[in-house]
Design a protein that fits this description.
Length: 933
């Protein structure tokens, strides 16, 4: 359940309700998966052809006779096509007793129709990456598949069918209700998420934007299936739907198929209802105090703002960056740099009707929450008037917004979802108008908006773990969208990419490989991409087991500190340079390894390469920035000391890695990690960089729109003379297959969601056919998303968990394979969850896989790989792996041949040989003492 797309630590906090984590699939050729019959509603069509409404910047809008809205966005640069059906219903439309119904219905639409009785399975069979999400104004159902006419037809058939023919059965509701309740409980584990919802609820007296999309427990548990069906019939209708097709397809073919599938759908006789509640102006400060078990404090402030279509909304988005960005934001400077808080962030909801601007500060337990609260409010309401916004602040904010938008615009999959979000705000063309408004935004616009909305009577304060003048703020109505777009023309469409074959053989034929002076090797794959994007990965390997002893903390912090500027650029200047170069940048480090990742556009690549050289060779490494990072890391760890999803995996990994405290691979407790980071000095980090980093060992991978000579420039100009003082010998991660199984139960008071984690290791080469057979066995057990044995039993049948999976991962250089199972559940269901998982594991080993299961798993797994390689970042990572493991893409071709040639006998034999349920090292963490007897 994810409330908005975000970045960094904030992404773990914000969420709009989604069905599950997307499932993938992949294959070069798609050998006709599970066949389906044509739904009753989409028999060969006598519907009128779609009427063209408008075309702007490569996006075409059409309208069917029954009211279905259609957007087409062709992009031939990826071998995938995305179909997104948006139903304009969300939690805003729910009535009394219906809280969470829109989201619950989203789940129910994956329970099947007479034509498609098993929706997750038929999607999985075709290698789809799919999901469903619910938000305040809309519900999305989307899938990304390998591009083909057949797959496009399938997706349109599926969506048009479940729009009106979904079962919505009582027995399905009974099992899915507990799954959704478990999702609700997962959100209850996060104090900041709960605090945000409490503040929204307090800020709205009457409007449903104050109601959580996930709903409340009683409505989730008690909703009658008859009411759910009524809600379904009321809102799931052709005149309340937009269908978006993006990716590689023929527009004329797509229009014909959309007419065939959606064109004959009938609307109910009753007209479509719309909401009409208007929230009155807030007439006084409101305060919410949340008291729960936790280790970190939060202070927040929320203010009512106009809808996403209003001109002032763009000013509020600029204020998100002016106030909340790191390190330029005013909140960051006044709270983080002054050591009143560990982190700050801000956001502004873009909605169909007036929404909220929210800002938060994360505060460690040994600091004053009241001081942080007061400073937060002072910066937002007082300081911004006394010290008006500057041109530099606004320009920086505008460039960040435009950079994020340009990077999004290079990915048709993301645009397919983004367009539906803007459509839910009133009109998809707001996506384009928003950009125009950002570019024309002035300091006066932003200052005026800040003065208008950031006032005490319009404020709701929220505090987790420890409160002014009758002034109403009238929020403007949404503008007349017809008038708004009457003369709007838009701009030229973004540059398209080439058609790309993501098969291993084709990739290797196009890949340029070579060596640099020292020990660096590279793999480069030039290709035309949408938006002329290019992705670069650089890995440096350093140190030995002996030379890195006692330096684990310094190693872990090195990458984070290197991202804080260079000797030429301080932190703010460095971030500004990344914005100017339209570059996404990250760098991280762990024992023996430092990896840098950057994505930019072709025109900026030479400057980005030079900047990469500065970061690697001449980082700033300032003591003051180390203190900021230290506080952030320690505060984050303190928050994990009572988190089930941190404690259970840590317990298992510690038992599977029997190293002493002096070993570099020793698995520390969370408290030990906190002590370690508190004791790292700036001199240790500087010495580590000076003596250990250089060009003696590492890999470079680059994929996208670039010239091959630019790769040589990176090696020659940035890395060639970079020698190192300390030798490199890889620290092996040998398997420990002889460890006995064990279970640890960990108490985490006041946590409504429990987390189960189990693992075992064995010695096996990933080049062995046995490994490929195990991959398929795991895929059938729990690697196939919603369509797997574990998901079918634990989630679909028993309703015990929102998420349950198994995974298999190999370390090629160590001949080591790790097998993992994990799940979340209500603490009350602990024993039942453990029993059901063990039963399914025993059944798999006893009965084996079936011929039908194996055939579907092969096809889905191969298609997953194909979809993954259509993503440049994933492909670059795969190329990087081939260099390190001294391979080419021929390894993946051979692995996929082994997958195709695997038999029922070989899969069952491998499962029984390597998987031993009694050897599982297990842990489950949750509030079990708090379970009512």
């Amino acid at each position: 359940m994810d409330l908005r797309r975000s970045s960094g630590w904030l992404s773990a906090i914000l969420f709009s309700c989604s069905l599950f984590t997307v499932g993938y699939s992949d294959d070069a050729s798609v050998p006709s998966p599970t066949q389906f019959s044509t739904p009753k509603s989409s028999a060969s069509s006598d519907a009128k052809p779609p009427m063209k409404v408008t075309e702007i910047e490569g996006i075409s809008e059409y309208l069917l006779d029954n009211g279905v809205r259609v957007l087409l966005f062709p992009d031939a640069s990826k071998e995938v096509v995305t179909v997104n059906m948006t139903v304009f219903v969300g939690s805003r439309h729910e009535g009394y007793g219906e809280a969470g119904m829109a989201h619950l219905l989203e789940h129910m639409l994956f329970k099947g129709t007479p034509t498609f009785p098993e929706v997750p399975k038929v999607l999985q069979d075709r290698g789809a990456r799919f999901n469903g999400t619910t938000w305040l104004d809309r519900t999305n159902y989307y899938e990304t598949l390998p591009a083909s006419d057949e797959n496009l037809r399938f997706a349109l058939e599926l969506e048009s069918d479940r729009l009106q023919n979904s079962f919505i059965r009582g027995e399905d509701l009974a099992s899915e209700m507990t799954v959704v309740r478990n999702e609700f409980e997962r959100g209850e584990n996060s104090p900041i998420r709960v605090l945000m919802q409490r503040m929204q609820s307090a800020a709205y007296d009457w409007h449903n934007y104050g109601q959580s999309t996930i709903g409340n427990r009683s409505d989730i548990e008690r909703v009658p299936v008859v009411k759910l069906r009524k809600f379904y019939r009321k809102y799931y209708r052709p005149d309340n739907v937009m269908v978006i097709v993006a990716g590689k397809f023929k527009p004329e073919n797509a229009l014909r198929q959309i007419a065939d599938t959606f064109g004959n759908l009938k609307n109910p006789d009753t007209p479509l209802d719309d909401t009409y509640t208007v929230e009155p102006a807030q007439d006084g400060e409101r305060t919410v105090v949340l008291r729960r078990v936790g280790d970190v404090q939060y202070a927040g402030a929320a203010y009512h703002i106009p809808s996403g279509s209003h001109a002032d909304y763009v000013a509020m988005k600029a204020l998100v960056h002016i106030l909340g960005s790191e390190p330029s934001g005013r909140l960051y400077k006044e709270l983080v740099e002054e050591e009143l808080a560990s982190n700050v962030f801000a956001l502004a909801y873009g909605l169909a009707e007036p929404g909220l601007f929210m800002a938060f500060a994360e505060v460690s337990k040994d600091h004053s929450i009241e001081q942080a609260r007061q400073k937060l409010i002072d910066v937002i309401e007082t300081s911004i008037r006394e010290n008006p916004i500057t041109e530099q602040e606004l320009e920086r904010a505008k460039q960040k917004i435009l950079k994020e938008r340009e990077l999004q615009a290079s990915d048709s999959d993301q645009i397919a979802v983004a367009l539906s979000d803007w459509a839910a705000q009133g009109d998809w063309r707001l996506y384009l108008l928003y950009r125009d408004r950002v570019e024309s935004l002035t300091v006066e616009d932003v200052q005026s908006a800040a003065n208008r909305y950031f006032v005490s009577n319009n404020r709701t304060v929220g505090l987790f773990i420890p409160s002014d003048e009758a002034q109403r703020v009238d929020i403007p109505e949404s503008p007349d969208l017809v008038a708004l777009f009457s003369d709007y023309k838009g701009r030229e469409a973004i540059a398209e990419g080439e058609q790309f074959d993501p098969s291993p053989v084709a990739i290797e034929q196009r890949t340029l490989r070579g060596d640099f002076v020292g020990g660096m090797k590279y793999a480069a794959l030039p290709k035309k991409t949408r938006g002329e994007s290019v992705t670069l990965l650089v890995t440096l390997r350093f140190g030995t087991e002996d030379s890195l002893k006692g330096k684990v903390g310094a190693v872990e912090l090195l990458g984070m500190l290197m991202a804080r500027g260079t000797t030429r650029l301080d932190y703010q200047e460095f971030r500004d340079e990344l914005t100017r170069l339209r570059a996404e940048f990250s760098i991280n480090s762990t024992i023996g390894l430092l990896q840098l990742k950057v994505k930019t556009k072709k025109e900026f690549l030479p400057e980005v390469i030079a900047l990469v050289g500065q970061v690697l060779r001449h980082p700033r490494l300032e003591a003051s920035e180390l203190e900021v990072i230290r506080r952030q890391v320690v505060t984050g760890l303190q928050q994990s000391t009572n988190e089930p999803q941190a404690l259970a995996p840590n317990s298992v990994r510690k038992r599977l890695a029997p190293y002493g405290p002096d070993h570099v691979l020793y698995v520390q407790s969370i408290d030990e990690q906190i002590d370690m980071y508190r004791n790292v000095s700036i001199d240790e980090i500087r010495d580590l960089h000076n003596r250990f980093l250089g060009n003696q060992a590492g890999e470079i991978a680059i994929v996208g729109d670039f010239e091959p000579a630019q790769v040589e420039s990176l090696g020659r100009e940035q890395l060639e003379d970079w020698t190192v003082k300390e030798p490199y010998v890889r620290v092996g991660r040998d398997p420990h297959p002889g460890i006995d199984g064990s279970m640890e139960v960990i108490e985490t008071p006041d946590k409504a969601n429990a987390f189960y984690f189990a693992s075992e290791q064995f010695e096996l080469s990933d080049e062995s056919p046995e490994y490929s057979a195990l991959v398929l066995g795991n895929f059938i057990l729990g690697g196939g998303g919603l369509s797997s044995r574990l998901a079918d039993r634990v989630r679909q049948q028993e309703g015990l968990s929102y998420g349950v999976r198994s995974s298999l991962s190999a370390r090629a250089r160590d001949n080591r394979v790790d097998f993992i199972i994990y799940a979340i559940t209500n603490p009350e269901n602990r024993e039942k969850l453990l029993r059901v998982i063990r039963e399914e594991l025993d059944r798999l080993l006893r009965e084996g896989v079936s011929k039908e299961e194996l055939a579907k798993a092969k096809e889905a797994y191969l298609q997953r790989n194909r979809v993954s390689r259509s993503d440049d970042a994933s492909l670059a990572s795969e190329l990087l792996s081939t260099i390190f493991n001294e391979r080419t893409m021929a390894y993946y071709a051979e692995h996929e041949d082994q997958i195709r040639n695997a038999t029922v006998e070989s899969v069952n034999e491998a499962l029984r040989k390597y998987i031993d349920p009694d050897k599982l090292v297990e842990a489950i963490a949750g509030d079990f003492a708090g379970v009512k007897e």
